[in-house]
Give the backbone structure.
Amino acid sequence: MLNYREGRPRFLRRGRQSRPRFRRGVYLLPSLLTLGNMFCGYTCIVYAMHGEYETAAPYIGIAIVLDMLDGRIARMTGTTSPFGVEFDSLADIISFGVAPAILSFSWGLSTLGRLGSAAGFLFVAAAAIRLARFNIQSSSGGDKRYFVGVPSPAAAAIPAATVFAYPWGLYDYRQALLALVMVLVPALFMVSTIRFRSFKTIDSQTRRPYTVLIFVAAGIMLIATHPRVVLVLMAYGYFASGFVGLAITRFRRGSRGAAEPPLPSLPEAEHTQTEDTLPRDSAAS
């Protein structure tokens, strides 16, 4: 039982070796992108607290781009890990939960007092619940073509694009009610069950027509020349796409139900006729 060379019992030594060893270290490139995402959310908060809304709002847009890149690069390079998933969720809480809430509060919700602060906290809570539910659904496996509820980056894009389009702030009580709607509506639909299209299934390695590059170049030019209008249209357009898809799905289900004819019923006369024509032996049995 005792190993005198080792100086300890063998069963203790074996039990110590059987403990699982966790890998130390992280995959550098996806983690750097996630760290950049977190930095953008923190920088947005700093500029928003100083009242520089026009500078603060674009950092949420940069965080959205980095959030899209880190997951895609991790999947393409095979460097996905549980650490990366948890690190990405924590960064998203800052960039797409706390940062939009503080930006909206400094921009217009502060005029409403406690009601504005409560609305900002509701946005943060909805983003946290949305991210937690997304992690559970991703681990259990589901339809990757759709998101259940508004994704937190898309919900954060609505106040960010609105503030960037009108960076002068809202200091009137009636105008601040618009900021209340701008925060509460995305927060409520983040925890809804409406499906929104996901772009994770788009394969960037397959061959595409050359015209795709023309459309991409046109989109870049529109954002560069008219950023305020284009970003607002993109943010609100994606938000409206979920409701358009829901309406189309219900319309198709309704048309399919109306197109199917009811099953024909057998008349009573035929019932009696078949009963009368049965043989007596089979009727007795």
